[in-house]
Design goal:
alpha+beta, Glutaredoxin, 7-stranded mixed beta sheet, 9 helices, 7 strands
């Protein structure tokens, strides 16, 4: 019997093509870059990004409810150009508030929490406190109150006026325009502010440009709600309990 040489099997070009496509598909999945995870509560801002620093995370439990507070590191300095500054410039902690005079949570923070921070940390030289204007809810009413505050600052009374405006919001909340300025001017007299000088300053509108600059700055920092805070370069959103600020300060050795 003659031995016959086995014939080689004919190659199947379609099968080979399918195999190559499958290999290429899965290889592409493995090689494709994966999106980085997004941190919770991260403001959409060009000043937030890769700083080499990790977010500060605080896990809290109050009245049986758990919550997480996140402070995201900023790429830019939020103190540059600030006008309203309280406390020692050499303090270990610098705390910057972006606020709106018609924001309910700003009233809550300024009336209840800020005095405790000032008494416990600012007056003792541990924290330097800075206030910066922004606008999230108040519109032209906020602009007017901020203008009066700037003029009160000319008489060395910004912080007194700032506290008074928040504590007595019900007195002026229904006023606008010239009537709002007049109401705030009359209220300011109890602080030792010269009302005619104050009103003249407001009518000059000389702080309009600075106010617009402050608002644009707050947007670049990702402020979309008030109050928002930058504490030693970390962005925190919302009015937090005094005890939370204590924990934040402690991480910086205060």
């Amino acid at each position: 019997m003659n031995e016959t040489t086995p014939r080689p099997r004919a190659s199947n070009p379609w099968g080979l093509a399918i195999v190559m496509l499958i290999v290429g598909f899965f290889g592409g999945l493995l090689a494709a870059p994966r999106p980085a995870p997004i941190a919770a509560n991260t403001p959409a801002s060009s000043t937030l990004g890769s700083t080499g620093l990790q977010p500060m995370v605080f896990n809290l439990e109050q009245n049986g409810q758990k919550s997480q507070i996140i402070g995201n590191p900023l790429l830019a300095d939020a103190t540059s150009g600030a006008t309203y500054i309280l406390g020692d410039q050499n303090a270990k902690v610098t705390m910057i508030e972006f606020g709106d005079y018609r924001c309910g949570y700003c009233h809550l923070f300024t009336n209840q929490t800020l005095p405790r921070i000032i008494e416990t940390y600012v007056k003792t030289g541990k924290v330097r406190y800075i206030y910066r204007d922004t606008i999230t809810v108040g519109g032209e009413q906020t602009v007017t109150v901020a203008s009066v505050a700037a003029c009160a600052n000319e008489q060395g009374k910004f912080w007194d006026f700032h506290q008074m405006a928040h504590a007595n919001v019900d007195t002026w909340a229904n006023n606008t325009g010239a009537q709002l300025v007049s109401t705030l001017s009359q209220m300011s007299q109890r602080l030792g502010i010269n009302s005619s000088t104050l009103e003249s300053c407001v009518s000059s509108n000389r702080y309009a440009t600075r106010y617009n600059t402050e608002v644009e700055l707050s947007k670049r920092f990702g402020v979309s709600g008030t109050p928002s805070f930058v504490i030693n370069g970390y962005f925190f959103s919302g009015a937090l309990p005094f005890e939370v600020y204590q924990k934040i300060f402690e991480t910086f050795g205060v």
